[in-house]
Amino acid sequence: MSTTSEVSAKPEAQGREVGVAILGHGTVGSEVRRLMEENAQDFAHRIGGPLALRGVAVSNPTKHSRTVPEELLFDDAMELIARDDVDVVVEVIGGIDYPRQLVLAALNAGKSVVTANKALVAAHADELAEAADKAGVDLYFEAAVAAAIPVVGMLRRSLAGDQVERISGIVNGTTNFILDAMDNTGASYDNMLAEATRLGYAEADPTADVEGHDAASKAAILASLGFYTRVNFSDVHCEGITGITADDIEAAKNAGYTIKLLAVCERITDAEGTESVSARVHPTLVRRDHPLASVSGSYNAVFVEAEAAGRLMFYGNGAGGNPTASAVLGDLVGAARNKVHGGRAPEENTYASLPLADFSVVPTRYYINMRVRDRAGVLAELSAICAKHGISLRTVRQEEAEEGARLILFTHTASEGDLATTVKELEAFEDVLAINSVIRLAE
Ligand code: HSE
């Protein structure tokens, strides 16, 4: 069995001790443990009682024996969770299946849980929320979206008195780094992905980032909170950045835009006044004078439009050991306060249960980059195809190309379905040599 590492507090922090178990001791877990020890006095005052680390669960204890006292290292996470003196479990392992078992075991045993695991929350939110409700404990996950940027708490608490209309976020640092570097240098996607890997922004397998899956998990969480409606990872329409070319970046620049991978969560109201929720992740042309366009490098930002608050933007580091640990510790202080003083954090409330919008009804605008035969009448014929589907063109730019002419079209707003059908028809038209790319524009 393990002993307990206790932290002393000034006399006025007299509340009961709160036992903490940390599951995982990687970049985030080790920072959480270090900062918890370093700031023990302050945390005791903020909570009203001291935090006591009961143990750190890791798969290979020997690897961590230089930084964690041996008696606090556990190779059996379930054993640590089950201890009577553990009140709050911090899950910073990552993955889905194994953490799901651990988090459910903790909640079912009446422990509050703080997790940084976006994939877990986005895939199993209902099950986890139900277990937390049944046990009357807290489930916190601020670090799951954009690390230290306080967007979860903002939606759960600060905007609980408002009506959120749209959330547009740059919530993946790796892809923002790549797109920003392409914008700055004119280089190709492959070259800038290699640069992101060399600098340690992109993982050895960058799939989850560049295909948009990481951002889609975060979009699901933001949409669920913003619209009081359960949105899961599988409900989010997701497209990554692998098809973005230097040519697209250049064309966007010439038209006054930059390309960002946006997570867009939106309340859609149809002509009959029926509301639905759309959550999607895709490359998006953002006007250069929009606040999100200035988010450079690996930074994250979340732009919220709410009925009474108007427009708000939250900006900062969306990943990394320290920023993620900051969010985890904020949640830990909240969960510990409730253990000392009673009460619960605002639970996940999905009372509105709005239907999920079919992707084809989402209003959007398209940028279409295509190559066409350079002969009289082609433009008129292309315009006729657009008009047939109710698509109005906002700007058309033609340039010479090696073969034929390059056309850059910007449409006015139409439904995703009508725009997609139009592109299919353009693609099949004999004078269209190639549709190079189609990218949506932010409203
Ligand atoms: N890989 C993510 C990013 C951080 O690049 O922002 C963790 O979600």
- Heterogens: L-homoserine
The gyration radius over C-alpha positions equals 25 Å
Q: Point out poorly predicted stretches.
A: none
- The helix-and-strand class reads alpha/beta
Tell me the domain tally: 3
DSSP strand count: 18
Question: Would you write up a description of this structure?
Answer:
By secondary structure, this protein is an alpha/beta fold. It has three domains: 18-147 and 323-341, NAD(P)-binding Rossmann-like Domain (Rossmann fold), CATH 3.40.50; 160-316, 2-Layer Sandwich (Dihydrodipicolinate Reductase, domain 2), CATH 3.30.360; 360-441, ACT domain (Alpha-Beta Plaits, 2-Layer Sandwich), CATH 3.30.70.260. The protein has 14 helices and 18 strands. The protein has helices at residues 27-38, 40-47, 77-82, 97-108, 118-135, 151-158, 173-185, 189-198, 207-210, 213-227, 246-254, 321-341, 378-388, 416-428, and strands spanning 5-6, 18-23, 51-57, 73-74, 88-91, 112-115, 139-140, 164-170, 237-238, 257-269, 275-287, 299-306, 310-317, 363-372, 393-400, 405-411, 414-415, 432-441. A hairpin with a 4-residue loop joins strand 15 and strand 16 (405-411). Helix 1 (27-38) crosses helix 12 and helix 4 (97-108) runs parallel beside helix 5. It starts with a strand and ends with a strand. The relative contact order is 0.12. Residues 367-440 form the ACT domain.
